[in-house]
Amino acid sequence: MNETQFNTFLNALSVPQDSKSIYKLLVNIRKELDWPQHRQNILKIRSEGCLGQLVSILQMPQRYIMDVCLSILGNCMMDKGCARDLVGIHNIISSLNHILKHHQKSDSINGRIFRIIGNMCQHKKDQWATLVIDNKPYIVTHIVELLKKSAAYEIPPDEKYSEATLSMAIRTLRMLLNCRTVIPLVKDFGVLKAVGSLFIKVSTEWQEHQTNQNLLHHIIRLLYDYSRYKYYNSILEMTNTERGNALLHLNNVLFLSPKKIVKIIMNFIKISQLHSELPVTEICDNLVDFILHRYLNPEGVDTSNSSSTSTDYLECVQCLCLLLEHPANKTLDRCGKCVPVLIRVLDSWSELDATQLKCCILLVTTLSQCQYDDGIIREQLKHHVIRVLLKKLQWIYGTSNTLKENHDEVKIRNPVNKKRAGRHAQQNTTKRKKALGSEPSAGSSKTSSPSTSSSGLLEEGCLRPTLRKQYSTSPSSSDDEYCPARYDRSPSPCSSIGSDLATFQALSPRRCSLSPTHDDEDEESDSDDYSPVCSDAEDDKKSSSENEEDDSNENQKTAELLDDIECDNEEDSEEKQSQALPEEPNIVHLKSLLVTEIAILISCIIRVDPKIPELGTEEMLVALLKCSTYFKPTVSTKINTVDIVLRILDSAKYLIPLMKTKFIETIYDLTKVQHNQFCNKCDNYKFVGKLILRQMTTLAESGVGKGEIAYTLLRGGEQVKQQLLLVIPYIHRDKSLLVKYMHFCDGLHVLIKLSKNEGDLKKRAIKTLCMMAADKLNIANPKDVALNLSQTRTIKDKYKLAEDCEHIVSFKLDDGSVFQADRQFLSDRSEFFRGLLSGHFRESSEDVVRLTNVKKKSLACLLHLLKNLSNKVETVDIKQDLETLLDVLVLSDRFLLSDICDTVVNSVEKFRISARNVPMIYRWSLESGTNLLRVESVAFALVVEISDAERFKMFNDMFQLGYTEELTDDIHTLLARYLYNVPIKMKVRDLLSPCWDNV
């Protein structure tokens, strides 16, 4: 139909006509008023002044005309301006009240009038709902009586109403609700009592025949809206209906709309006075059974076809979490069955996608909110929550127990401030240790405090939930609102915990939302399902189109009503809601949120029971350290997992088990920096490593620790003894105590034995011996302590015979070569050559002297040194290969050139010794019989700062020389010399006294 024809129809309304013509005219107009496609036509009706004519047509006696006219007015009410004119100018409420009185039993008229009133109230809910209740209470009374009659066991044929009419009646009672009308609607009109009776009847029929499902959705939605107002009479009305307690029947239709039903219970629980008033336990058990039998097999593995897209599965899990939010439900009696199921569900999710990460965050948050009930915490421990949390941490950061990673140097912008920050964190930790039972350090106080710890999850773009005022008759804080996540915790077990539906919206994917008839956040029309039958055949053809009279805009506004307590204007709510919509968080951010929540839950568990075996395992401690900002910059800074590790290590129960693992060695590796002191990452590694080693040292050197270690060394098997001795040097600062373990407990012998035997512990034993030598015994590196006897000189030229030399002696070597030298110079500088060349030996009269076991290159180097060095030991860098220098040492010792020998030894120590040539030097020392550089090479091998791989290769090369016993003896002698020079402060009996009585 074109615009001209529609204008013709509107103009015809002002012309007097008979009833049939008016009916045809109204039908044609109705065809062009579908909302919102024909919104301009509705505006044209208002601008042409036809609204008054339509209201006057309602006075006509023909019912079929009245039906079509009411349908048109219902669509016109979708526009604010039309609704304002119809109510304020044309007083349509009085007309509707009059029609209802004369057509009480007409199904189609009642349904259309209810729709008009509902559409009217959605625009100015406070004003016009109050106007209807104060000035035309008959409308409300009539609706309540209609519902009561429909809830009766036997209904007369002329009083039976269609499902569409009943749905519109329920919707009208919901649209009349606001903070001013809730008391009269509930107390004076008995709305909830009538709705409750109808709900019992309809829910029973639905269980048996699966009928009236749409009507049930409308009733559940009404109960949800009424439950949001803190008015205790609402519970009384629902529990005392003519058919019984309507609240108990919520459990019967739970899976028709789980979210809303659980929300109804959570809203009512805030004002309930008796535990028996609400079926919390029944709903909890129903949800648990549904999840167990449909989605989890006995092993706890997810058996759904697609768990990440199963809306029913996610919705039921979220409902369980919602039930546990209120303090009244956090008991084993009411919701104790939820805990093991939630843990099994958490364990079953193992895909690193946004959906499952959000759900895991919700589950862990829910478990941590039960921190004030020790019974529930112990129930979590009973069902291995620590093991599941460890799997989640390893799920995110991997199963490797390696903490230190190779990295490029990261410069600190302000090194001074960084060091101050480190000292400040260390002081905070020290204060925490000194104060028994005090709160954690400032760096971690937000972790253990339930009122502030969750704020860390709201950083990096997350929005906080809107704080809402609460009045006695205002909706509760569980209004529907968009928020990325709700993580606020109650500061005490008596405080109310908000149950915003934002948890569902934020932690469940959009694709997992329910169908429009299930979720009030989806855009649905409250009047789409209403299509009363018109009395005329032509109107019957149009009845189907009336099912779509309300548009998506109405649906959206209806779903957003009461989003703000102080403002019921749906446009303002829509604007606020659209501004609060966050962007989809990325995977990295979700991982950070999950890790933070896991850390908070572990902190709560430590408070209840700090001596849980699963907490003190190497895997758990390493996983917690990986979560720290010192290792992962993407993790929230509001949670300090290093402090959690320190709190775990406060217990001596974990000392011996950890000493049997590689955890202490892993922590020690953190203290060895890869770059200089201005590398930020190295500084972080070193700070954390020293902090934890200090804690382990305090524990190991305490009375309990010493007793446990001594008893285990004495009574444990050989394998256990080896495991403990491998880590004892790392965590003992008291050298006298270290002496007792190494000497009286035969620790040094065990470590050296492990280092020479091929096996899994060889590398660890070598590493431990080197660490003890360098860090505990402070054995100096020969390279660092080589004598600086003079200003360093470099000698690199070769020996040359002087041109003016008068007395030449030729030395004939084993290879047949001849080397000439100045006879007088040799006699003057060396007593050996003076006696050989100028004494009473045969060689003194010979010009050619035979020297055996001498190489020409070595002899030339020796004579060159003799020529260039004075008669004292000097510091020189001799530019010769190491083999030649070692041969020079043999010659200098043979020819009694002690100063030259000392000079060469000092030069090798300072400029030539390295990890690569230490095996060669040690072998030369033994095979030459001089023992020169023997101790120095062993000391260098023990204390040189090189990588573990280079160290292991160096020692393997030394052991493969064929002098294993000599090498182990040298290592033992060197370490024992430094060990036993330490004064013994206590006797071995005193060392073992804590456990002596048990031996």
Fill in the keyword field for this structure:
999 residues, mainly alpha, three-stranded mixed β-sheet, two-stranded parallel sheet, 51 helices, disordered C terminus, ARM-like, SKP1/BTB/POZ_sf, ARM_ARMC5
Would you write up a description of this structure?
Residues 805-875 form the BTB domain. By secondary structure, this protein is mostly helical. The protein is built from 51 helices and five strands. The protein has a three-stranded mixed beta sheet with strand order 3-2-4. α10 (137-150) packs parallel to α13 (191-209) and α23 crosses α31 (618-626). The longest helix has 22 residues, at 587-608. It is elongated, with a radius of gyration of 45 Å.
Assembly type of the shown chains? single chain
Provide the β-strand percentage band: under 5%
What class do helices, strands and sheet pairing give?
mainly alpha
**Biggest pleated sheet:** 3 strands, mixed
In DSSP terms (H or I, runs of 4 or more residues), the helix count works out at 51
Radius of gyration: 45 Å
The level of helicity is 55-70%
Low-confidence stretches: 304-309, 413-584, 983-999
Q: If you average the pLDDT, what whole number results?
A: 77
Strand order of the largest sheet: 3-2-4
Report how far the terminal alpha carbons are from each other: 105 Å
Taken from the alpha-carbon principal axes, the silhouette is elongated
Biased composition (Acidic residues): 519-529
InterPro entries: ARM-like, ARM-type_fold, ARM_ARMC5, BTB/POZ_dom, SKP1/BTB/POZ_sf
Organism: Acanthoscelides obtectus
Protein name: BTB domain-containing protein
